[in-house]
Amino acid sequence: MKKVLIDSDTGLDDAMAFVHGLLSDEIEIIGVTSVFGNGEMIDCAYHAIEIIDLMGKSVPVVKGISEPLIGGCGPAPQVHGKYSRGPLGKLDLEARITPGYAPIFILDQIRSYGEELVIVAMGRLTNLAVATRLDPDLMRKVGQIYWIGGAISVSGNTSPVAEANADGDPEAAKIVCTSNLPLTILTLDVTMHALISQDDIDRLKRVRHPGVQHLVKIIPYYLDFYESILGERVCAGHCGLLLALVIDPTLITKTHRLNVDVELNGRLTRSQLVADRRKLRKLTEPDTSKDEGVTVIMQADVARYHTMFMDALLGADRT
Q1: Which residues are 145's β-sheet partners?
Q2: Closest Cα partner for 165 from 182, 185, 155, 150?
Q3: How confident is the model over 79-99, as pLDDT tens digits?
Q4: pLDDT per residue over 223-269, tens digit each?
C-alpha cells in the first residue's frame, strides 16, 4: 500500500480528493500538512480535520505556512467559501491540530519512509519549497511528488497565463520545479476535463456515509461558481483527479519529460508555468534518456476517473 502525505489548502475539490482517498484500499494517507490558498491556512487545516473525522479515520494534520514567500494571489472565497468549506461556517478545531511545522514534518516523513513515500501537493508549494531549501538532498529521496499546478497550452485561471496554485506563491513553485526533485505535474490542460456535475451530486444524495454527505452539502457552492463561468452546472475536480492518479497510475495515458520553470518578473506573465516543449517537435515518445526536468502529465483517462470516483463514493456505505 502506497504511503501518501497530502499537502493541501483543503477546499472543495480537495474535499472530493480526501473522501475518495480515505475510502481507497490502494493508499494510506499517513499525514496532512496545511498551507494557505483556497482559504486561510488554519481554516484549511480545520477543514481537513473535519473530513478525516467524518471518514472515521485518524490522520495527523500539521500546520504549515500561512503566506507566500514574497507575494501571490490571495484566497478565492467566491470559489471555495470564506472558510474553504463552501457555504458552511467557521470551525475551531485547534485542539485537534498535531503539533509541528509542516516543512519539518515533511522532511521527517521522508526520513521515515524514503522512496515509499508519495507527496501529493494540492495547493501552493510554499511548505515544500521551504523543506527543499532546508534539506534539498533529503527532498530528492522521496519516492514521488505529484502537484496540481500551472497551465501550459490553455489559459490560466487567475490571469491569462497563470494558474492559482502557481500564482499563489510563484517563488515557491519555481524552487520546487527547478530543484531536480522527483516531480510530476498535472496542469489545467488536463484537469479542466475532469468534470463533476450536479447530476453526480444528486446521485450521491442517497449515500448515508457522513463523508459523502459532506460533499453533497458543499459541492453545490463549487458548482455555482463554475456555472457562472462555464455556463453549465459542472465543476472541475482538479485535486480529485490528482489523487486518483496516485491511487491508479494507469489513468495517466501520456506524459512528457520537460524542463519547467516559473516566470517571476513579467508584468503580464508573472507566475506562468513555462515548459520547454521544443524537443517535442522531434519526438513521438517521451524522452527518458536524460535525468533532467520534471514529468508533465499531458493526458489522462478522465472518463475512467469519473467512473472510479463515483463508484467509490456510491459504495461508501459498504465500507
Answers
A1: 119, 183
A2: 150
A3: 999 999 999 999 999 999 999
A4: 999 999 999 999 999 999 999 999 999 999 999 999 999 999 999 99
Which residues are within 8 A (CB) of 100 and not within 5 positions of it... i.e. 6 or more apart?
Answer: 60, 62, 63
d(CA 71, CA 167): 9
Q: In terms of CATH, what superfamily is 2-318? A: Ribonucleoside hydrolase-like (3.90.245.10)
Distance CA 287, CA 13 (A): 32
Q: How many C-beta neighbours within 10 Å does residue 292 have? A: 10
Indicate the domain borders of the chain: 2-318
- Sequence-distant (6+) residues with CB within 8 A of 197 are 223, 233, 234
CA distance to 32, 110, 246, 317, per residue, from 313 (Å) = 21, 31, 17, 8
55's torsion region: left (phi>0), alpha (psi -120 to 50) or beta? alpha
What pTM does this model have? Answer: 0.95
- Between CA 263 and CA 203, with CA 244 as vertex, the angle to 5 degrees is 120
pLDDT at 216 over 90: yes
Tell me how far apart the alpha carbons of residues 156 and 32 are, in angstroms, rounded to a whole number.
Answer: 27
Task: Please tell me the predicted confidence (pLDDT) of residue 278.
Answer: 81
12-23 vs 210-230: helix crossing angle, rounded to 10: 140
